[in-house]
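As a warm-up, study this chain.
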Amino acid sequence: MSTEDDKNIGRNLKKYRTSAGLSQVQLAMQLLTAGFEGVHPQTILKIERGQRPLRLTEARIVADVFDIPLNYLYETSKEAEDELDGLRRERLIRERTHALRQAVDALLTAQDDGQDWLDAHPRSKAVVAHGIRKALEQSDITEIVASHIEHHDRKREEARTAAQAPLPGWANDPDPEETDEQEQENPDGTDQKTP
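Now compare it with the structure written out below.
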């Protein structure tokens, strides 16, 4: 038996999941990793349909995964949507600022390393300086920064992937919602096509 609150929470969960571009399987994996014990894609489906209540401890994990305040799972107001949009933009700015700082730090480290080498090899200084000038003339500094950001993102993703626990058996299954829709279209399992 579901209440109107459960249905509202389910609609909000589905809205946040789809706006994040996650399937039910992907969300279940993220929630499992974040500590939502026993979660399964079917659990997500039932919550989204209002057929299973979302417990408070589970709601806290869901809010953390979506990086939203807990009350956003319960609200339906336009103000909450606007505030959520602002929070997402703020998070994106923080992430990009952090990546830019890392790129600048990498460039400064490379500059220091280059200067140390030049100090140790004074005869090569003029040749290297000319090569650096030519390289900078032929390239765009934004490309250099972008390549550093890509490198750091790739390393971070590799580290995250390497640290992940083994996937549960259902991790590569289709979303239960997709399977359920197919069963509703063809409940007896026979081919409904006409010649």
